[in-house]
Design a protein that fits this description.
The chain is 43% helix and 19% strand. The protein has 9 helices and 7 strands.
């Protein structure tokens, strides 16, 4: 049975294409190993390798060998680099950058995207969301959260709304209508992408 195209960007065959390209284009000065990216996005090494081969052949990404590692990077010299960066920022960008910006902050225990972007990511069809809603669980400094959200906005070309809740409220929402609503709808838990390979 053929997998339907992803709701965030139906031009793609699979969500992994979007996740891979978004991560590479939104971290243009970095490279990551094929194995790390496959693990991060939950696909097999064979699937990741086939996808990388297609993208290298199309000159959308570059690859080089470093020992046993196959290292991938966005092809930022191609004519499509600018438009692709904006396209993937507007579609798969939140999953590519928000975890890295929010989870390292002191006091953050976990973070989840909710609202229309999460709905698209999990397969609900509709238009491109105008903003991204993020629920941060923990007790981080408000100024740190504000600064991270503004940085995310510059990378994602849209408003990023961060709502902070304590771990106790998140675990036991009780009669809180906001948290009850968040839990009833799709959410996407964020992860920080920790690279074992450096340069």
């Amino acid at each position: 049975m053929q997998t339907p195209p992803p709701a965030l960007l139906p031009l793609l065959r699979t969500p992994f294409q979007g996740e891979l390209l978004a991560w590479l284009y939104l971290h243009p000065r970095e490279e990551a190993s094929l194995a790390e990216l496959a693990s991060r996005f939950g696909v097999s090494s064979a699937t990741a390798s086939r996808e990388a081969d297609r993208l290298v052949e199309a000159e959308l990404i570059t690859a080089r060998r470093h020992g046993n590692l196959r290292l991938l990077r966005a092809n930022t010299t191609g004519r499509l680099a600018g438009p692709l960066t904006e396209l993937f920022a507007l579609t798969y960008g939140p999953i590519a950058v928000l975890g890295d910006l929010l989870l390292p902050l002191a006091g953050v225990e976990e973070a989840h995207i909710y609202g229309s972007w999460a709905a698209r990511y999990t397969g609900e069809h509709g238009g491109v969301p105008n903003d991204v809603d993020v629920l941060v669980v923990g007790n981080p400094d408000e100024d740190d959260l504000y600064e991270a959200a503004r940085k995310a906005e510059r990378l994602l070309y849209r408003e990023v709304n961060v709502h902070r809740v304590s771990p106790a409220r998140w675990q036991e929402p009780g009669t809180d209508p906001f948290l009850s609503g968040v839990r009833r709808r799709p959410t996407v838990q964020l992860e920080a992408f920790e690279r074992k390979h450096k340069g």
